[in-house]
Design brief:
This protein is mainly α. The chain contains 3 helices and no strands. It is elongated.
Length: 82
């Protein structure tokens, strides 16, 4: 028998832990790969942002807009108004 529409399946703690561990491992691997790709272009980008005397424009559409707002918050809190 199928659950009613909108009903959640029973909680499976073992599955939740397994999925969380898999997700953390995937994200950790991605971060390690990204760290290996850092080069002088990253330092140049940081230097360019630090030299800005006005505002930094952060924009996007859809999901990238959401990411842009996440980037804008720490910029604003560290003295670089978006």
């Amino acid at each position: 028998m199928y659950p009613a529409a909108g009903a959640l399946p029973p909680f499976d703690a073992d599955q939740a832990l397994r999925l969380a561990r898999e997700t953390f491992q995937l994200e950790a691997t991605a971060l390690q790969q990204m760290a290996g790709r850092l080069d002088a272009r990253f330092a140049s980008a940081v230097q360019a942002v630090l030299q800005i005397h006005g505002r930094v424009v952060v924009m996007g559409l859809g999901k990238s807009c959401h990411v842009g707002s996440k980037i804008a918050a720490p910029l604003a809190s560290t003295g670089t108004p978006p």
